[in-house]
Structure formats: structure tokens, C-alpha cells
Write a structure and sequence with these properties.
There is one protein chain. This protein is mainly alpha-helical and 330 residues long. The protein has a two-stranded antiparallel sheet with strand order 1-2. The protein is built from 12 helices and 2 strands; from the N terminus they run αααααααααβαβαα.
Length: 330
């Protein structure tokens, strides 16, 4: 019997064990592929995600603030709502949002389904109501047919709408970043990027930015060592719990695709990664990074950009004579 197959198997097992050891030792894990998805709900949810008729103006869709061409965000300090209203807080990316422990900066939505219903009825965002949005969908025969195909017989309601949107959003993961491939044993990082990762770990950044999403799994106070100065009125978790101890505690943002999701922080006041790293070092860690150290960390952060969702834009079913017309200027 030839020893070659045994040697090949031995090499593969050694590589697998070594990779497992690396993963066990690292505070960050690779983004996993999506499993257990209802594809019919995903296709319906994609249409709803891109359909501006869920808004009063007929102009704003989920994709307006969570643009699939811009890292799942809008690259604005705060989003633009109905009648050009300024939003109260920076729009988090929708990419990898299924990995968050809760939704919104203050965690007021437990999951993606609960989050999906909020903007539709928010007067500062899409400015419709759940009733009006359902009336619009129910007036369109193609939507009625698709909802019945996906959910069975019964009226369209807001629960079905948000279930479908959430199921689509679960697919918006970004695996296969160069850092993930390094975690899996490939030689994909430069010396500078690896030095940046080690500095990121040894400085204490991983105390909050860990796990597959490199964040999103805890609430932390903004301004641990020094207070964070901002004109933004958001109170963070305290607005949900009513506890003063939770004031200025926000959900730690994911650092996945962070080079795409500028500006940074809940108020969007930090325009660049360099500035964000400097501020976080001083306020959260009590450390002033040198320009060289800052550049190393930024180089590592850019390795967290994964494969972006590849989407074919849905063709939305046309309105009918019975469909409520938008009122963008009222």
C-alpha cells in the first residue's frame, strides 16, 4: 500500500488541527455562511426592502439608509428622513446585523423582525403607518399572490412584512475577508496588518470588539476614561431601561467592513478611521496611539472587509388604480 494517501491525510489533519488551534486562541471568529433560510421569504423580503412605497413619500425605502452599494449604510452623520428631516443618530450598517445581540444603538428592538417595523411608522423616517403600508401592499395583486405563496392564505399584515424583511436581512453577511482567511490558516495578511492586529489585541480593543462580528454583542459606555463630548441628544441604553447607570451606553458597533461604513460613532462625528482610532484610544483605553501605531491598527481594520452581498435588484410589482398614491410634500 502506498504511503502517499496517508501522508496527504496526515498533512490535512495537521492543517485542520492547527487552524482550529488558531481559532480557539483568537478573540475574533470568521463570519459563517448563512444556514436555515426560507428562500421564499428572502425573495419577498428583498422586494419589500427596496420598495419605497412603504413610506409616505414613496421615495424612502429600507435601502435608503442601509444602502447595499455603500456597506449597508448611507455614509451620512445622521440619515435623512421624510421631508428632509435630520435623523437623531447615525444609521448602523445592516450587514451582519443578524449577529447583533439587539438592534438599534440603544437595543430597543430585540431582533431584526422587531427592528424592521420601526422605520415604517416613524414620522421622522418613512412617516407612514403600518395600516397604510399594508393597504398599499394589499392593493397590488402581485404582492397579494406572493404573500399567499410564501405565507399561505390569509390577509397581509405587518408581522408577515417584517418576517420577510428580517429573513432577507439575515442573508446580508460578508464572509471571506482577508482576515477571515488568515484565521483559517491562509497567509493573507501583511506584516503591517498583522502588527496592527496584535496591537489591537494587546491594547485592549478586543474587550469590546470580539466575536464573529467584531462587536455587536455588548453595550458599553462611550467615554470610559474621559467623557465623550457631543451635541447629539441620544442617551443610549438608558432611554430603554430608564436606569441612569446606562446613560451613554451604546451597542458596540461591528467593525466588519468598517472602512466602508464611515462616518463613525453614534453621532457620526468621526469622519475617518484614523480619527476614530485616536478618539477610542484616548476615551476608552486611556492611551494615545502614535501616528505609526494608529496606521497599523487602521491597516488591520481594513482587512475586515468581506465579500459584499451580490444582489440582483428586484423588479417591483406596479401599483394599481386602487393603490394609495404617495404624498412626498405633505
Amino acid at each position: 500500500m502506498s504511503l502517499k494517501p496517508l501522508l496527504t491525510l496526515s498533512t490535512a489533519l495537521t492543517t485542520l488541527l492547527a487552524t482550529g488551534l488558531v481559532l480557539a486562541q483568537e478573540p475574533i471568529q470568521p463570519i459563517a455562511l448563512v444556514h436555515n433560510i426560507n428562500l421564499a421569504q428572502v425573495e419577498l423580503g428583498k422586494k419589500l426592502f427596496f420598495d419605497p412605497r412603504l413610506s409616505k413619500s414613496g421615495f424612502i425605502s429600507c435601502n435608503s439608509c442601509h444602502n447595499m452599494s455603500m456597506g449597508g449604510s448611507d455614509n451620512l452623520k445622521t440619515s435623512i428622513g421624510h421631508k428632509w428631516q435630520q435623523g437623531p443618530i447615525n444609521a448602523p450598517t445592516v450587514l451582519n446585523s443578524s449577529l447583533n445581540l439587539a438592534q438599534f444603538w440603544d437595543g430597543r428592538a430585540a431582533d431584526l423582525q422587531e427592528q424592521a417595523g420601526g422605520p415604517i411608522a416613524n414620522p421622522g423616517e418613512m412617516a407612514s403607518t403600518h395600516t397604510l403600508a399594508i393597504d398599499v401592499l394589499a392593493s397590488i395583486p402581485q404582492y397579494r399572490i406572493e404573500f399567499e405563496q410564501v405565507f399561505g392564505k390569509g390577509e397581509i399584515d405587518i408581522d408577515k412584512v417584517t418576517v420577510a424583511i428580517a429573513e432577507f436581512e439575515k442573508t446580508l453577511v460578508t464572509p471571506n475577508s482577508r482576515f477571515d482567511r488568515w484565521l483559517m490558516g491562509e497567509n493573507t495578511l501583511t506584516e503591517q496588518e498583522l502588527a496592527g492586529y496584535n496591537l489591537f489585541k494587546n491594547s485592549g480593543c478586543v474587550a469590546c470588539h470580539n466575536g464573529p462580528a467584531v462587536g455587536g454583542n455588548s453595550f458599553q459606555k462611550m467615554g470610559v476614561v474621559k467623557p465623550y463630548q457631543t451635541d447629539n441628544k441620544a442617551q443610549g441604553l438608558a432611554g430603554v431601561t430608564g436606569n441612569d447607570a446606562d446613560r451613554f451606553k451604546f451597542k458596540v458597533p461591528t467593525l466588519r467592513n468598517v472602512e466602508l461604513t464611515y462616518p463613525y460613532f453614534h453621532d457620526g462625528e468621526s469622519d475617518t478611521l484614523t480619527e476614530a482610532v485616536e478618539i477610542m484610544g484616548k476615551l476608552q483605553l486611556g492611551r494615545t496611539f502614535t501616528d505609526e501605531e494608529n496606521a497599523l491598527i487602521v491597516s488591520f481594520l481594513k482587512t475586515l472587509t468581506g465579500d459584499q452581498p451580490s444582489l440582483i435588484l428586484p423588479i417591483l410589482p406596479p401599483s394599481t388604480d386602487q393603490t394609495l398614491r404617495p404624498t412626498p410634500f405633505d
